[in-house]
Amino acid sequence: PRELPHLHLHRLLSLSSRPRLEDAPPRIVEHPSDLIVSKGEPATLNCKAEGRPTPMVEWYKDGERVETDREDPRSHRMLLPSGSLFFLRIVHGRRSKPDEGIYVCVARNYLGEAVSRNASLEVKFLTPGE
User: Fold this and answer.
1) 78 lies in a domain?
2) 45 Cβ neighbours under 8 A, 6+ residues apart
3) Potential cystine with 84: which of 80, 98, 115, 123 (Cβ 3.0-4.6 Å)?
4) Considering the entire predicted model, what is its pTM?
């Protein structure tokens, strides 16, 4: 037991002199799941990543980066602090289907990146002819 404070001090010293010692590349700990949602309804695609430093999370749909409220405050897509993508309401029209597609989340820090599994978001119609 007597050696514990010494070990603790040594650990603190090594952390301060080599701050990157404890750093770790991102890894996805919660992957998004396929969703089937109704037009106009809210929806959430989950993504949770770990790493040190805390990874930045971005979303891609069909290979294109998804714009969220971080870029456009009026966006109906919000990037939650956890890394999940929250849709205030699913937008879906005859010609434009901006929310339907295959999504992945990508977590990055200076040590690398991790990509989640694919998740499909599909919009179901409640009434015929909608």
Assistant:
1) yes
2) 32, 33, 35, 59, 84, 85, 103, 105, 119, 121
3) 80
4) 0.81
- Asked if residue 97 belongs to a domain, the reply is yes
* Domain of 70, in residue numbers: 22-124
pLDDT tens digits along 76-127: 999 999 999 999 999 999 999 999 999 999 999 999 999 999 999 999 976 6
Cα–Cα distances (Å) from 65 to 1, 29, 57, 58, 126, in that order, read: 53, 21, 11, 7, 29
CB 105, CB 21: distance < 8 Å: no
Give dist(CA 73, CA 28) in Å, integer: 27
In a domain, 26, yes or no: yes
| Residues composing the chain | 130
Number of domains in the chain: 1
